[in-house]
Amino acid sequence: MNVRSNTFSSIFILILFMINSCNADRSDKNEVRKVFRYNESAGIYSLDPAFSKDQASIWACNQLYNGLVQLNDKAQVEPCIAHAWKISEDGLTYTFYLRHDVFFHDHPLFKSGKGRRVIASDFVYSLNRIVDEKVASPGAWIFNNVAKEGNLNLYKAIDDSTFEIKLANPFPPFLGLLSMQYCSVVPKEIVEYYGKEFRCNPIGTGPFRFKMWKEGVKLVMVKNNNYFEFDGKQRLPYLDAVSVTFIADKQSVFLEFVKGNLDFMSGIDASYKNELLTPSGKLNPKYKDKFNMVTQPYLNTEYLGFLVDEELSLFKNSPTKLKLIRRAINVGFDKVKMMKYMRNNIGVPATAGFIPQGMPGFDSSKVKGYSYNPELSKQLLAEAGFPNGDGLPEITLSTTASYLDLCKYIQQQLNEIGFKIKLDVNPPATLREMIAKSKVAFFRGSWIADYPDAENYLSLFYSRNFCPKGPNYTHFKSAEFDKLFEKAQSEINDSIRYDYYQKMDQLIIDHAAIVPLYYDQVLCFYQKNIKGATGNSMNLLTLKRVKKL
User: Fold this and answer.
1) Are residues 475 and 308 in contact, defined by beta-carbon separation less than 8 angstroms?
2) Are residues 230 and 325 in the same domain?
3) How far, in Å, CA of 116 to CA of 450, rounded?
4) Which of 175, 195, 211, 191 is nearest to 64 (CA)?
5) What is the pTM of this model?
6) What is the DSSP string of 40-106?
7) Which residues partner with 117 through β-bridges?
8) What is the CATH number of the domain that holds 427?
9) Using CA atoms, how far apart are residues 509 and 352, in angstroms rounded to an integer?
10) Is residue 391 part of a domain?
11) What are the pLDDT digits (tens) for 485-511?
12) pLDDT-derived band of residue 29, with 50, 70 and 90 as boundaries?
């Protein structure tokens, strides 16, 4: 009898496995009333949080999973599965106290097919999985500072409700790192059952649970009726489902949104920019009664970078080796007009430092950047030995096709000063490789925050992070900067740490290692019947409090 019962159980699980396959095209018999619909032009590679490295995957995983902590609308860390935590005085030990009412989504491998409760050992497994070389998660770097015992990271389940992490060195931004989707909790028995196919059979704890995914066509996530978060007395989420399509052509996506077939659209594309926005960046009045536009700072700085490593021959042969030339470029074009005519005022001209608006600790009054001053630019050229640009060698600016118009604007204005700027257009992957290998002396770049702390930006200028081993693409080196950077790493007091950050940011600007162009903005468009939609400067899509009327 036991053999027969086990056989039937195995067959039952197999049938449900086939039903839940990500390639099965399924739909509920009953019509879902409140479905939030959006498009993801870039497509989604995986629904496994271990591979949530791009916005498309992050947005989907944010609906399916939870971690110890999460970010609120101000990009501040707040409780999630951990209802509280304690940090030791030396900043090395983080102790998290878990909620008792968090359950994984239902699955036949769990007892009675119901999701089991999340316990501390689940986080030990989930975080160890991220650093497992066999998994090859791109998020492994998050835990570089976690202390080790032999080859094992020091994660510990004190009991079912208490989880501990020990760091090798103090690192105040660590809580922000733990808010990333890489750090989501997953059930060991489900992950090991599916293996690599967990990417399309996800089981998490999030406000929505996986329903179906026909790759390149449609992804559906449905309401998790056992979700642990409440809005007052109302259990979240409000929506019944989330439906994601994968239309690649962005103009087609815009048309689908205008027709009301999509509830949400993020960002702006050149193909419809002037149709949707006025020259000043406002919503076109013809659409005022059709949908809403929401804008907010986005933790992304667009910039031009200089290679400033004196030991590299490329630096020695480039006119940008002279700080006077780099400063002349900084003040030689009008960023305000650039934003108005090239970007419809989407974003803020970067007249402070590298750290963007929206980042905690940003203070434009304490970091003095560069503003347009053509006369000063000419004066600096003359001081460098090139009056009116006479005798100044040609300077090549490397970029991609997506930013060609912007770079042409900069080229034209600088050429009027006396520069001879040549544009070199490369495929994005090629340019990234050239920058990483220090093969270009002057390049257009951008840096989007991985976590909401300015350390993420300043690490690009720490001398120990020289590319290709790290993100210091300019090879900027300053003993004073390095000293401040290392002091900030162990400073727990936010006010003192922010003061260090601002001093470092000013050093970068004073050395003119970069030309900050603009601090980006998030543009989100919602249909009129969508209420409660919020976001933060990380451009994170959170749908658990959204209502569709």
Assistant:
1) yes
2) no
3) 31
4) 211
5) 0.85
6) -TT--S---GGG--SHHHHHHHHHH---SEEE-TTS-EEESSEEEEEE-TTS-EEEEEE-SS-BPPP
7) 103
8) 3.10.105.10
9) 8
10) yes
11) 999 988 888 899 999 999 999 999 999
12) very low
